[in-house]
Write a structure and sequence with these properties.
4-stranded antiparallel β-sheet; binds zinc ion; alpha+beta; about 140 residues; 3-stranded antiparallel β-sheet; 7 strands; about 40% helix
Length: about 140
């Protein structure tokens, strides 16, 4: 990936030109200061253009790598969540949460002790209350 930025050495440091807007965080992290008169980012002191450019490119690589890693991580988390949601434990956890908050979605489930027999046909059984029900209204027990 190329930033397209131009690094130019000067008596008082290295100036950065080009479309710097997207890279201002990285430039700041490396110690660049904004020069409002020249409207350029600027590294003060006797650093060579090559040093500044290569540390900028290193940082940029690192940033891109971190973004990639984060994306992979997010995908893995999403996949894990989907697997969890689809698993019997995940469904049970969702139901228990719904029974605590909003019963309307699972009004066919007798109570927290219920065992779900068929998710699609909405059949549960409950040993505690002796039910094998469909569309059973929650009675609060
Ligand atoms: Zn019950």
């Amino acid at each position: 990936m190329s930033s397209g930025l131009v690094f130019t050495g000067n008596d008082d440091g290295v100036y950065v030109s080009g479309v710097t807007f997207h890279y201002k965080d990285e430039l700041k992290r490396l110690g660049a200061k904004w020069n409002p008169e020249k409207k350029l980012w600027w590294f003060s002191g006797a650093q060579s253009v090559e040093t500044v450019r290569s540390s900028f490119e290193e940082l940029l690589k690192e940033v891109v790598e971190n973004i990639k890693k984060r994306k992979i991580q997010i995908r893995a988390e999403e996949k894990a969540k989907k697997l969890w949601d689809a698993s019997p434990e995940g469904k049970k956890a969702r139901v228990l949460e719904a029974l605590r908050t909003d019963r309307s979605k699972y009004s066919w489930i007798c109570c927290e002790e219920s065992e779900v027999i068929d998710w699609n046909k909405m059949v549960c059984s409950c040993d505690t209350h002796g039910f094998r029900v469909r569309s059973h209204a929650w009675n609060g027990t």
